[in-house]
Write a structure and sequence with these properties.
GO biological process, one term: proteolysis
Organism: Accumulibacter regalis
Distance between the termini: 58 Å
Oligomer: single chain
Helix content: 25-40%
Shape: globular
Protein name: Peptidase S8/S53 domain-containing protein
Number of helices: 19
Domain Peptidase S8/S53: 300-635
Mean pLDDT: 91
CATH class of the largest domain: Alpha Beta
CATH superfamily of the largest domain: Peptidase S8/S53 domain
Low-confidence stretches: 825-834
GO molecular function, one term: serine-type endopeptidase activity
Strand order of the largest sheet: 13-14-12-17-18-20-22
Length: 834
């Protein structure tokens, strides 16, 4: 620590000397990074007590063990596991630095620390590293250095390179304005400029600007770093207000070129108000499959940027939301309009004009405007789609895989979801890279299909760090959707293509994988994303398989925008998590129709403000991890070291499982689903009574109970936990002592509590004890604060409980549940509704 603090002090003195007089109003400050092992609660007050400004914190779980910090097992033996810890960020000036050093010297010399500052004793005790926030974090962790290195090779030194500057969010508005002036001045001094105004979103603590610098200045920085220089002459890269430099103008939706085939699709016109919305590129509203079925709202006239054949991604997503998978043109369209507001446009500089958000535009701004326009209106325009319950976001930022903390885009979706009580369905993202199977073609073909799957799963596991979900898939209030390796396309011509996961009910080999924020279950659910094949290497000795992006089967048949004039009936086959997400949004719209019918039958028992959160619960409620998929993953990846946490490993690949939506939309004689919803406040408990069907008394039949709780939480971007409300559903006793003798099947009991969906699948086969008609299972929903000192608002939630026995068993579960629920007007002890 002595050496680290000496280095810290020297770094600060050099920085202070280098900025002295360089920019008017530029105070020499620095952002401190304090990495500790374990945790120190309520550290913020200690930071502010010595004049430092709190900038945030997050959990870390990969500190290498050393002589000072290590884990012990249950026997007290030292292990080689990484140590979990926490990282704090704070900004201080010269006075704050002096105070920090003074406290360190007192602690080191065993002197008593001053009143109000004793928390620093715990910090010094547990500090692994203390340093200045610098180029390593601002540039290297975001991938900017590698990206710039790739860009610079063929570029003229005078050419401008564009990027995004993300600033530390200062609490004081005056400080934020001063940071803006400083950044603009430093850019100008380096020969660059801003590309537009700064974006400042206090609700999500996001402050940033788009900018450009001459390539020669970027090259100068890279040269200095390569020579291991401890400093750079470019003041912008040393400015304490900059948190990250990031890429900008990334392509958000990539589709293949091709014309497709003509497919006859029955046209139709609907006029019911929309429930589902799509934020994507512009669709071809004149396509035979979409004409009369979309409500296009294009306030920025982005349609004018498109040429014939450009409307690919938006058309395909709209097709899947409206019709689902089309098999030979057969479709089952939604009975309502689908609202579409474009947020992307073609990139004229890309080879295939892929759709993106331009360099000078923040997609956070476009999305915030779009959602506000739906529910509140914009300018003189009134609310354009206030009936929307679910919004499809089948796009992601390939330059921003999830690391540590939610991105601004994810934080925005969470805040919008809470503010407007709307559900976002977000794609987990695709992994477009090759898979190296490290086997020759002959050796691979010699394997049985199960052995091929086992081998490829191990190869995919080796890619996990590169397969992290893409922003904004980590959003906690959203439902993130992964893809299964499946479609309804039937047989296909294989050609020079290989199915790397043959005969397995698994995730798509081109899908990105979890976990989410704080190792929560992400993606929560999987929908079919089309069978993804890989191009067979030409030489037997070649082992690298590239994904096939062709538009022929297999895959999901979707409407396609043709560059041929008047060609309005083209379809192609596509694949990916974008497709899976569109199918999830379509399922959410179908769930709405069921809920709407129930409201009609039960006198509006479901308030409009709780419809979206109940859809969220039901969308996950149909999820179940496939038994064959679990067996395949366990055979390939389960080891002695991970066996105790293997449920958490499994969720990384399967989430809560693939959704069987028909199980959600209707009951059977042997399966009944009960719904509840409400608003709950901090420290309240809502109690629900599920009547036990008397037909199960003393039975030994297989039975399953599925319980799903979902909620929308307010968010606190300044707290490491981010989620303000933690809800938990549990039986009055524990699951194992329930009269039905059930045991948890899927999901780790801790992991299911880390997000905003708790999904429990429980089964039993042991003989049930006798019980009386009228006996019930009591379920409690408890609400606790998380990333806040106090919950000021009621938290909306939805609850779904399904009880079933095997089909054909003569126990009328549905009828016995329905009969015993009818007399109960309210089943909440504290305020819920059922």
């Amino acid at each position: 620590m002595d050496a680290q603090l000496t280095t810290l002090q020297q770094d600060f003195e050099r920085y202070k000397a280098s900025v002295s007089g360089s920019v008017a109003g530029l105070e020499p400050e620095t952002v401190l990074v304090i990495e500790i092992a374990g945790s120190v609660n309520e550290f913020r007050q200690a930071v502010e007590a010595i004049g430092l400004e709190w900038m945030g914190e997050w959990d870390i779980d990969d500190i290498p063990p050393d002589e000072d910090f290590f884990e012990r097992n249950t026997k007290g033996e030292r292990t080689n596991k990484a140590v979990k810890g926490r990282m704090f960020l704070s900004l201080g000036n010269e006075a704050g630095m002096r105070e920090l050093l003074s406290l360190w010297e007192k602690w080191r010399d065993n002197e008593t620390l001053p009143s109000g500052k004793t928390k620093w004793r715990d910090v010094f005790n547990q500090t692994v590293q203390i340093r200045r926030w610098g180029i390593e974090e601002a540039l290297r962790e975001t991938g900017m250095l590698d990206r710039w290195q790739d860009l610079l090779n063929p570029i003229n030194p005078a050419q401008a390179i564009r990027f995004q500057i993300e600033l530390f969010y200062r609490r004081s508005e005056d400080r934020r304005r001063q940071s803006e002036r400083n950044v603009a001045t430093l850019l100008q001094a380096a020969g660059g400029k801003t590309l537009g105004g700064f974006i400042d979103m206090p609700e999500i603590a996001f402050h940033a600007v788009k900018a450009e610098l001459p390539a020669e200045r970027i090259q100068q920085l890279l040269n200095e770093l390569e020579s291991e220089s401890h400093d750079t002459d470019i003041q912008l890269f040393k400015f304490h207000g900059v948190m990250y430099f990031r890429p900008t103008g990334q392509s958000l939706a990539v589709t293949e070129d091709g014309e497709g085939v003509d497919t006859e699709i029955a046209e139709g016109v609907v006029d019911l108000p929309p429930i589902a919305a799509i934020l994507d590129g512009v669709p071809n509203v004149q396509h035979q499959a979409l004409k009369g079925r979309l409500l296009l709202d294009d306030p920025d006239n982005l349609s004018a940027q498109y040429q014939p054949g450009d409307r690919k991604h938006g058309t395909a997503m709209a097709s899947l939301v409206v019709h689902g998978e089309m098999a030979d043109g057969q479709a089952d369209p939604l009975p309502r309009l689908v609202y579409v507001l474009p947020i992307m446009q073609p990139d004229p500089h890309s080879m295939n004009r892929s759709e993106h958000v331009p360099d000078e535009v923040f997609f956070e701004d476009r999305i915030a405007r779009a959602v506000r326009r739906m529910f509140e209106g914009e300018g003189a325009a009134p609310a354009q789609a206030p009936t929307i319950c679910v919004i499809n976001v089948s796009i992601g930022d390939p330059s921003r895989p999830f690391i540590h903390t939610p991105s601004p885009w994810a934080r925005l979706l969470d805040w919008l979801s809470w503010k407007y009580r709307v559900l976002f369905c977000v794609s987990a993202g695709n992994y477009p890279e090759a898979i190296d199977i490290a086997l020759s073609g002959t050796d691979y073909l010699a394997l049985t299909d199960p052995k091929k799957v086992e081998h490829v799963l191990k190869c995919i596991q080796a890619q996990l760090s590169g397969r992290r979900i893409l922003s904004p898939a980590e959003a906690i209030n959203a439902i993130t959707v992964g893809a299964t390796h499946a479609d309804n396309g039937g047989n296909y011509y294989q050609g020079q293509r290989t199915d790397l996961l043959p005969g397995a009910s698994l995730f798509s080999p081109a899908a990105r994988l979890g976990h989410g924020f704080r190792r929560s279950v992400k993606p929560e659910i999987l929908f079919p994303g089309g069978r993804q094949l890989y191009r067979t290497p030409v030489l037997d000795s070649q082992t690298v398989y590239q994904p096939d992006g062709g538009l022929a089967a297999p895959g999901q048949q979707v409407a396609w925008d043709s560059n041929q004039a008047g060609a309005l009936s083209k379809t192609v086959h596509t694949r990916g998590t974008s497709n899976a997400t569109a199918l999830a949004t379509r399922s959410a719209a179908r769930i709405y129709e069921v809920l709407d019918a129930l409201r009609g039958d039960h006198e509006d028992s479901i308030p409009q403000g709780l419809i979206s959160v109940l859809i969220k619960a039901l969308l996950v409620h149909g999820a179940k991890q496939d038994d064959d998929a679990c067996e395949a993953i366990a055979a390939a990846l389960k080891t002695r070291d991970n066996s105790r946490q293997f449920k958490e490993v499994m969720s990384r690949y399967l989430g809560y499982g693939a959704v069987q939506i028909e199980r959600v939309l209707a009951c059977t004689e042997q399966r009944g689903t009960v719904l509840g919803c409400g608003e709950i406040r901090e420290n309240e408990i809502h109690e629900y009574r599920l009547p036990l069907p008397p037909g199960l008394s003393s039975s030994q039949e297989w039975r399953r109970m599925v319980v799903t709780l979902a909620w929308f939480s307010a968010v606190n971007p300044n707290h490491r936990n981010f989620r303000e409300a933690k809800l938990e559903m549990s039986p009055a006793n524990n699951w194992g002592t329930l009269p039905l003798k059930l045991a948890r099947q899927d999901g780790d009991h801790n992991q299911v509590l880390r997000g905003t969906v708790q999904h429990e699948v429980l089964e039993g086969t042991d003989q049930i004890a006798a019980f009386q008609d009228g006996d019930s299972i009591l379920l409690h929903i408890a609400c606790k604060k998380d990333a806040t000192a106090r919950l000021d608002d009621a938290i909306p939630y939805g609850l779904a409980v399904t009880l079933e026995v095997a089909e054909g068993i003569q126990i009328p579960i549905y009828e016995q549940l329905r009969t015993r629920l009818q007399p109960q007007v309210a089943v909440s002890a504290v305020g819920g509704t059922a």
